[in-house]
Amino acid sequence: MPAPDPVVPEERRTRLLAAAAVTLGRLSDVLTPLGELFAARGHHLYLVGGSVRDAVLGRLGSDLDFTTDARPEQVLQIVRGWADHLWDTGGLAFGTVSASKSGWQLEITTFRSDSYDRVSRNPEVTFGDTLEGDLVRRDFTVNAMAVKVGADGSLEFVDPLGGLDALLAGVLDTPAAPEDSFNDDPLRMLRGARFVAQLGFVLAPRVRAAITAMAGEIERITAERVRAELDKLIGGAHPTDGIDIMCETGLAARVLPEVPAMTLEIDEHHQHKDVYQHSLTVLRQAIDQEDGDPDLVLRWAALLHDIGKPPTKRNEPGGGVSFHHHEVVGAKMVRKRMRALKYPKQFTEDVARLVYLHLRFHGYGTGQWTDSAVRRYVTDSGELLSRLHKLVRADCTTRNKRRAAALQATYDNLEERIARLQEAEDLARVRPDLDGNDIMELLGLEPGPQVGRAWRFLKELRLDRGPLSRDEAEEALREWWNAGAP
User: Where are the annotated coiled coils located (predicted)?
Assistant: First the structure.
């Protein structure tokens, strides 16, 4: 994607600053008294970073970031009694006081002039004396703008590093040399890809070059911090652009190698140049089906659903290509990667389960499944059924309009059958027609493994035949038991 023209008409600057002033003016109940409190103690207060960037973009959230020349203990004294709540989540050691006021979350940080050991990403915290010194240490110029909050409620825009020009041009550049910035904190490289995904910006050429040359430095960062950035990236408005940046610069090869590995595999339908591009299309189509906030489970499953194809690729006679059982292999790969990135167990299992199940629909044909097969489809997906519906539909990327329409119509038919069975049988809560006590009484058993095996037999029977009467269930259980049940 070519970088936008950096020459921005002055009228547009004026309009955006005016709009930001209106946005921030709505915060006067917080900004004005807070500015007065700091001024009364002889200190300066600035709204800074992402808060200013988002105010200019018209997307300000509920989190407000400030910087000040006051030291942390002084900040505590100033806001204590004014803030609704104060807390310490470990930020105080880095000069940050966290507070809330009228529903706003505030972080007030003393001017910083950190230095890094360049082995880990841990800074040696030293407090600075100037706003400019604080801004120049930030990750990107679009995050290095500030608004001075005056004692009288006045707001003064401060932009010594050209952050507004970069924002208006849609370019991510570093305040200082990118090599120095990324050596100090390699996570900033991944954060650059994340901002591409969130804001739709492009990397400045020198930033892209530095990330490409230094991608290996990301291995200094903990898995937990990498995971947090990846979630913000994939949850952005333009996640495929951020994923492209990661793959093109080599970052993905270090933190998510299964994704760039898909560029080596031509998909069997030959409708995309590779499985990687197919997966990005599936991700975009899955996002189109969201009906609320970003669904990270669905998005991760869409991106990773075909990662099992490279290790299962087989060249078939006649020039064809197959990927037998790639859904099974892919689910195992998902678990391994997400565990390495320290994802929660349930989140990992949900994504892996969707990857495992995403191909099952293709055995449906034109509706040949028995009711038993439909019940198993619902039972095996459990609470993931609605996500599985979306993933399967998103996985249809053929450019053949007739074939695409036929696939969607077939899935419509499956969903209609599921709805009918759910209405009749409550498929979400399929259980055997006899419970454990019934089984023990009927077979004369004590609690133990045999009761569990009998229970599982009855559940399988319930899935195969649907609801049974008590007499039918008892007769089937006796026959199974008398035939030498294991």
Answer: 397-431
Q: Please check whether residue 111 lies inside any domain of the structure.
A: yes
Q: Where are the alpha helices (DSSP H) in 4-100?
A: 10-25, 28-40, 50-57, 72-79
450 vs 337, residue with greater confidence = 337
Q: Which residues contact 307 (CB under 8 A, 6 or more apart)?
A: 258, 259, 261, 262, 330, 333, 334, 355
- Specify whether 39 is located in the same domain as 77: yes
Give the three-class secondary structure for 161.
Answer: coil
DSSP structure string for 303-363: HHTTTTHHHH-EEPTTS-EE-TTHHHHHHHHHHHHHHHTT--HHHHHHHHHHHHHTTGGGG
Same structural domain, 300 and 354: yes
Instruction: Give the CA angle between residues 407, 412, 417 to the nearest 5°.
Output: 125
> Are residues 295 and 420 both part of a single domain?
yes
272-293 pLDDT, tens digit each: 458 999 999 999 999 999 998 9
- Rounded distance, CA 8 to CA 203, Å? 17
Range of the domain at 321: 280-430
Same domain, 419 and 378: yes
CB atoms within 10 A of CB 402: 8
Q: Where are the beta strands (DSSP E) in 229-286?
A: none
Choosing from 415, 430, 445, the residue where a domain stops is 430
Task: Report CA torsion sign: 446, 447, 453, 454.
Answer: positive
Residue 307 has pLDDT above 60, yes or no: yes
Return the amino acid letter for 467: P
Average pLDDT, integer, range 401-428: 82
CA atoms within 13 A on the CB side of 367: 11
Percentage with pLDDT > 70 across the chain = 90
The reported pTM is: 0.82
Q: Do 331 and 450 fall into the same domain?
A: no
**233, exposed or middle or buried, with CB in 10 Å at 0-12, 13-18, 19+?**
buried
Q: Contact at 8 Å (CB) between 201 and 1?
A: no
Helix (H, G, I), strand (E, B) or coil at 47: strand
One-letter amino acid for residue 202 of the chain: V
In a domain, 206, yes or no: yes
According to DSSP, the residues that pair with 171 across neighbouring strands are: 202
Query: What's the rounded Cα separation, in Å, for the pair 224 and 231?
Result: 11
* Contact indicator for 432, 458 with CB cutoff of 8 Å: yes
Question: Identity (one letter) of the amino acid at 114?
Answer: D
Tell me whether residue 85 is exposed, middle or buried, using C-beta atoms within 10 angstroms of its C-beta: 0 to 12, 13 to 18, 19 or more: exposed
> Residue 60 phi/psi, 5° resolution?
-65, 130
As for how many domains the chain has, the answer is 4
